[in-house]
Amino acid sequence: MITFRTNTSRTLSYHRRGDGPLVVMRPGGPGLDPETYFANSGLQGLSALVFCPRGTGRSDPPPTPEGYRMAGYVEDVEELRLHLGVPTLTLYGSSHGASTALAYACAYPNQVARLVLVNGPARVDAPFMTALANARKRFAATVPDGGERLAVADDAFAVMRTTGDDITRRNAFRTVMIDMSHVSVSTRRPFWSGSARRR
Asked: Which of 70, 130, 153, 159 suits 86 as a labelling partner, its CA being 20 to 30 A distant?
């Protein structure tokens, strides 16, 4: 893991793997383990930089909860760009990482060469939370053992929010990823594919 100091004397960290043009990968969460999040993400012919947002990996947490607002995450991405000494970034963001990447692109449009956003809401507001609740209801009603999967994932997320142990947090996250992506016995397909996604 590589660490660096920001202009405000904070430590941020990242992993690099592969060779080729640089892609900065920003994980979902917030607070999920970045390496575990992108463990199965291969970018052949590219150099993947898995950025550890504040409070994950060896990146310092902010001194107060206010530091976990979007503006702080955006400034961390800009600090990374300055550390790398590159004029622009190619950003790949998933979930909360996509929201951060989009916010960064809005704040620093001239510093973004390419932008890939996956499953990231533009904002987490009341309409989004209502839509999320409705999606959970549809998932439980239409996907074989969907209700059971959601319950297991909720329990694992609760562990991730409350544990101070990195290994426990990573294991809980793996539980979520396995539980929400395993092939159903009845359909032999992942829950997000085919008719399950269109319902």
From this structure: 70
CA distances from 136 to 130, 140, 154 (A): 10, 6, 11
In angstroms, rounded to a whole number, what is the distance separating the alpha carbons of residues 198 and 176? 22
Distance CA 138, CA 122 (A): 22
Question: Is 144 in contact with 184 (CB distance < 8 Å)?
Answer: yes
- Span 116-164, pLDDT tens digits: 998 877 677 788 788 888 888 998 899 888 888 888 888 887 887 777 6
- Residue whose tokens read 């904002």: 123
Residue 32 has pLDDT above 80, yes or no: no
More confidently predicted of 180 and 5:
5
Kindly report whether the global pTM for this prediction surpasses the value 0.90.
no
Q: Which of 88, 96, 136, 89 is nearest to 117 (CA)?
A: 96
